[in-house]
From TrEMBL:
PANTHER family: 3-OXO-5-ALPHA-STEROID 4-DEHYDROGENASE, STEROID 5-ALPHA REDUCTASE C-TERMINAL DOMAIN-CONTAINING PROTEIN. This is Membrane protein. Gene3D superfamilies: 1.20.120.1630. The keyword Ribosomal protein does not apply. The chain crosses the membrane at residues 6-30, 42-62, 112-131, 143-160, 200-233. Keywords: Membrane, Transmembrane, Transmembrane helix.
Length: 273
């Protein structure tokens, strides 16, 4: 590859970092004015969409057009769907308990603490996790069998995430379920079908970037980081800590897989003779 290629890729990486930072800084300004930092959850998908769009435009003339289009479209569909879902779900609600607890620990000014620990961190994570988008978009390799596997994995992940979110929304909309734990549909097989779907999506995008061994090694950090965030970072771990006090949740957790979809386990009642 000639120096112009590497220069274009390096420039794209820098512009993408600035794009992610801009989206999160604008979100920070709006959230600070409204005293509603849960808005950052909506910005997460938008930031990835912005990075994918910038990368698609800047990679024109360098990468294979089919791969560029698939990567940009897949990221955009995922990002905008996620942001729209979170925006709809949080409409009319106050601050998220996670951010209230985080800011209560602020050693000094709460606003600047939020900027450092939430917004700047998320901007860095968006850039890091987006590495496969850049690598795939600058690849000259035509779509092959591995890319098809990536697309199918992405589609499966989007299906899991979308169906899981829809099932949960319908469950919560029924007043009869107000005090109950959602344990139906996909939620009977995994306690987090939406998080599992997210992980599949980014492993699928990673496969689209695996056009060479160096590319595969260099971008492996992306799906690994996303999976860790979803399982032991700010996803599954914090949500289950919040849900632990709910009546019936311990029994639900005992019979339902924590992440990977598995058939529900049979549990023996402690009162059984």
């Amino acid at each position: 590859m000639n120096p112009a290629f590497w220069g274009a890729l390096a420039t794209n990486l820098a512009v993408s970092a600035g794009t992610a930072l801009l989206v999160l800084l604008v979100t920070f300004a709006v959230a600070s004015l409204r005293q509603l930092h849960r808005l950052v959850d909506i910005a997460w998908g938008i930031a990835f969409t912005a990075v994918a769009t910038v990368t698609y435009v800047m990679s024109a003339g360098y990468g294979e057009d089919g791969r560029r289009l698939v990567v940009a479209a897949a990221t955009t569909v995922w990002g905008l769907r996620l942001s729209a879902h979170i925006a709809h779900r949080s409409r009319g609600h106050g601050e998220d308990a996670r951010y209230t607890a985080l800011l209560d620990k602020a050693p000094g000014n709460r606003t600047w603490y939020a900027l450092r620990t939430v917004y700047l961190l998320q901007a860095a994570l968006v850039w890091l996790i987006s590495l496969p988008l850049h690598t795939a978009s600058y690849s000259t390799e035509p779509l092959g069998a591995l890319a098809v596997c990536g697309i199918l994995l992405w589609a499966l992940g989007l299906g899991f995430e979308t169906v899981g979110d829809h099932q949960l929304a319908r469950f919560k909309a029924d007043p009869a379920n107000r005090a109950r734990i959602m344990d139906r549909g996909l939620w009977a097989w995994t306690r987090h079908p939406n998080y599992f779907g997210d992980a599949l999506i980014w492993w699928g995008l990673y496969l689209l970037a695996c056009t060479s061994w160096p590319a595969a090694v260099a971008t492996l950090i992306s799906p690994v980081t996303m999976t860790l965030l979803l399982t032991i970072g700010s996803g599954k771990r914090l949500l289950e800590k919040h849900m632990a006090h709910r009546l019936g949740y311990a029994e639900y957790a005992a019979r339902t897989s924590g992440f990977l979809p598995l058939p529900p386990r049979r549990t023996t009642s402690r009162h059984r003779s």
